[in-house]
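Internal tracking record. Fields below are filled automatically when a chain is submitted to the structure queue. Please do not edit lines marked as system-generated. If the sequence contains nonstandard residues, flag them in the REMARKS field before resubmitting.
Queue: standard
Priority: normal
Entity type: single polypeptide chain
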Amino acid sequence: MEQFRFRRVLLKLSGEALMGDAANGIDPAVLEMLSSQIKPVVDAGVQVAVVVGGGNIFRGLAAASSGMDRAQADYMGMLATMMNSLALQDSLERSGVFTRVMSAIEMQAIAEPYIRRRAIRHIEKGRVVIFAAGTGNPYFTTDTAAALRALEIGAECIMKATKVDGVYDTDPKTNPNAVRFEELTYIEVLNRGIQVMDSTAISLCMDNNLPILVFNIETEGNIRRALMGEKVGTTVRGES
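SYSTEM-GENERATED OUTPUT FOLLOWS
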């Protein structure tokens, strides 16, 4: 196997990342791009798990702010993550990657129930495991689900895929002088209120010294480059 920085990673994808340039839904071209980046690293021996959000279909928090019961809205958001997970599974398998979807809420006709030891066994066999339905509990985001599942399966890094090439001090879309960080500590992220992941997810990673790599998924080959140790994106870790 090539000399990768990590042998087992969890890739966190937002639901919005699947929209492409559309206002909502799933762009097949984005799924194809994601599969083309995941397949080479899996073929090279890296063990990959994925958590996908559901914001391109339904956002529970937004619905709750409009008056819907928060728990009910969050469960609907979990169903949205299942739709995204099945779409990604289809794309990966059409590209030749063996894949399993495991759901925190039982949906036996379309996905396996999440069982930690079974998930690890799938990953050890070289299958990409997609964790759907968040943690299975309302009031927790898919960021928190990503941190939790990464720790449960022994992932060495969370790779947080975004549409920008890292974390900036201000929004680079509105400020051309925004400065990109190469590294940040968990405490800096929490104290500055930087929206890398939600505070619960950051705290979980901090307590267990799990690094987070924030990078641009839209740049072809970035997953492989990051795993090869090239300076891609922003790394969030503990004090050096």
